[in-house]
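Lab channel / #folding
Pinned by the channel admin:
"Please post every new chain as: sequence first, then the structure tokens as a reply. Keep commentary short and put observations after the output so the thread stays searchable."

First post following the new format, from NK:
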Amino acid sequence: MNHVWQRALTTIVLLAVAAFLVGAALGRTAGFAFALAGLALVLVLHWRNLAAFERWLRNPVPAAVPNGSGVWEDILARLARLMRQQSQSQQELFSALEELQRATAAMPDGIVILDEQDRIQWCNPIAEIHFALDHQRDLGSQITYLARQPQFAEYLASTSFSEPLVLRQARGQELVLAVQLVPYGNRQKLLISRDITRIERVETMRRDFVANVSHELRTPLTVVGGFLETLTDMPEPNPAILRRSLELMHAQTARMQRLVEDLLTLSSLENAQNLLREEPVNVPELARLLHHEAQSLSGGRHRLRLEPATDHWLLGSADELRSAFSNLVSNAIRYTPEGGEIVLSWEAREGDAVFAVQDSGIGIDPRHIPRLTERFYRVDRSRSRETGGTGLGLAIVKHVVNRHQGRLDITSQPGRGSRFAVAFPARRIIRKGDPLHAAEVAPEPPEPARSQATG
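Reply from TO:
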């Protein structure tokens, strides 16, 4: 600014010297008139610069700062530099803000910024989903007006935020959130929400699994323990009672053995380290063996048919496929009344290869079908125990099918029977003429006295 004042003083001094020289040459009046004319010119120049500056202030575009003249040239040039710096800083700030918004939008957690009165200042898209917020509509609203759970309001008012709050919200389907408040700045708060629905579901499944296993083992252990106590207290063993007790104890220990075997099978299938051992599997031959096994299990109580409509093989695990198909066949025999019909089929359909078991049994209510493959899920618990099922058979089938990239389709009508079909994709089908079609892996022969199926 000193430079600007120096230029102004220099202009005044030069004007005074010029007026003095004109006055000396032409007289005092002429000199005075020259000085007035010079001042008037300076004022006009200042007025023009002020007018240009005033017009710019009405629409202060950084790129349109007027050039100016005289002392205004330096002033307006400095203003133009400041405006360019401010514009650059503003652009950098906008870029940083956009980057922050993109980063928070990509975060798996919801983030809400609250002011000192718990009003919403900003939120990311995940928070909009978690709390049913609208970024434009709900800015400035109290968070407790929108998240109305009493426990959340208590948590917000407690000012103790060391532990997260588990919040359950029911909007169409259950949503479980872990929310935590983090105070910062001038009495502001950061509300962080995390969707823990899947974690809660897994924990519930774990608790149910432990409870179910404990329950399934308790019953046979109680029976065996009761008979052992009875036999121990008998002074003279009664041959008839002894024989009956041993038969029942054998049945209960066999049931526990099947349960343990199924648990080990399921554990192996769920183990990510247990990679699928692929080999060519002769499914038509496997279907014939399962048909023979089904006849042995049925004991003539059912009409059994085998319909092999294709000679395709599969690329997969022979043991796992045998286990899955055997469970489907055993379930059909178990839940089909005497005199009913069971059909085993192996066919090619719409590019897939489909193994299906159709029965004329008791059928299943449609509301149970989505949960049939859950571990220990039973439509009728008393009937399942009477038939000897462990409640893990269809869970094993589901895992085997998933490991082979297949699809399990279940159709059923109460009183009219059920159809369980496993469809395998084209990439697992081995057609006749393929070199792998000759590399047969023969299925193990069936056990005549006992089924591998577990219900």
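NK: The longest strand covers residues 173-184.
TO: also worth noting, The first helix runs from residue 2 to 26.
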